[in-house]
TrEMBL record:
Keyword Cytoplasm: no
SUPFAM superfamilies attached to this UniProt entry: YhbY-like (SSF75471)
CRM domain boundaries: 1-97
GO MF terms, alphabetically ordered: RNA binding
Keywords, ordered alphabetically: RNA-binding
PANTHER family linked to this entry: RNA-BINDING PROTEIN YHBY (PTHR40065:SF3)
PROSITE patterns with a match to the protein in the record: CRM
Name by which UniProt lists this protein: RNA-binding protein
Length: 97
């Protein structure tokens, strides 16, 4: 799902007050993490993920791996924080403009 600029701006404003609920460390992204992020996206639709300094992978690679594994869209990568969005099937809360 590709987001328009207007939709990304809207989601960034929604994500501003969120705290990261996942951290990617030196082990990087694995299948278990992708599964947990996918479940969190189904419940919340919009989440932040923090990349720790000891992570050996590039933050763009981490974001792409998580987005592809969960079917989510990358809203923003700022500093060491990734914001992901995936429309929920059962718990739809966010209405995109």
């Amino acid at each position: 799902m590709n987001l328009t600029g207007k939709q990304k701006r809207f989601l960034r404003s929604k994500a501003h007050h969120l705290t990261p609920i996942f951290q990617v460390g030196k082990d990087g992204v694995n299948d278990n993490m992708i599964k947990q992020v996918g479940e969190a996206l189904e419940k919340r639709e919009l989440i932040k993920i923090s990349i720790l300094q000891n992570c050996l992978e590039d933050k763009d690679d981490v974001a792409n791996a998580l987005a592809e594994g969960t079917g989510a869209s990358i809203v923003q990568i700022i500093g060491n924080t990734i914001v992901l969005y995936k429309e929920s099937i059962e718990n739809k809360v966010i209405e995109l403009p």
